[in-house]
Amino acid sequence: MTKQDEIAVFDSGVGGISVLRHLRRLMPGERYLYYGDSANAPYGSRSTREVRDLTFAAAEKLYREHPVKALVIACNTATAAAVKELRQAYPERIIIGIEPALKLAADHFPGGRVGVMATEVTLREEKFDLLLHRFDESCAVAKISAPGLVELVETGRADSPETEALLRPILTPYIGALDALVLGCTHYPFAAGTISRILGPGTVLLDGGEGTARETRRRLEAADLLEEGPGRVVITNSAADARMLRLSRKLLEQP
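Now predict its structure.
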């Protein structure tokens, strides 16, 4: 591996672009390769074995076809299902996962009320249970599933009447009842406007993208692999259609 090699960022679709935005802000001189597996999205309703197989297939493809110095699994579902096994399979590789920002919520709201909105796979995996038990004594945690939200983001409707219609019955019981809502899926930050409108200003939204970017930088610094070049981003997607690539570019450049 060399400094000029790429940071590969992988997600089940376009959601990981929310993490890529944090990475670019923190390390603008790097060469990024984004790979979204929208052809197989959403991962959140699949079995753990299916998610693990898809994640391994994506990692193997990226390692085989590109000079990758770090792999960022910018998908909470894939991280929960496969990051441990990936690290065991590739012990010499730098592999960074993402997890719901529950520690951040517990630190900011000790003794508070925190919701974690994530996919079914993330919420049921052992990795999340271990994370939850680290903080369930310091704050009250509610697990919230939002099936269908990933599909709306994947079709460019993150901030739309359809998204509000989906989320309002899910989130209404939590209006005024949460100090923070952890967005435990990388697709969900793109729906933050709708979520905030429903929950109101009294609930702070948090996600793990910034922490993942900081950890990526820390690992690259430790390996003397940080690049200070002009930087670039290449976006690819298993769906490989122009609409998906236009949506990816729009989300990357969104203020």
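The mean pLDDT is 94.
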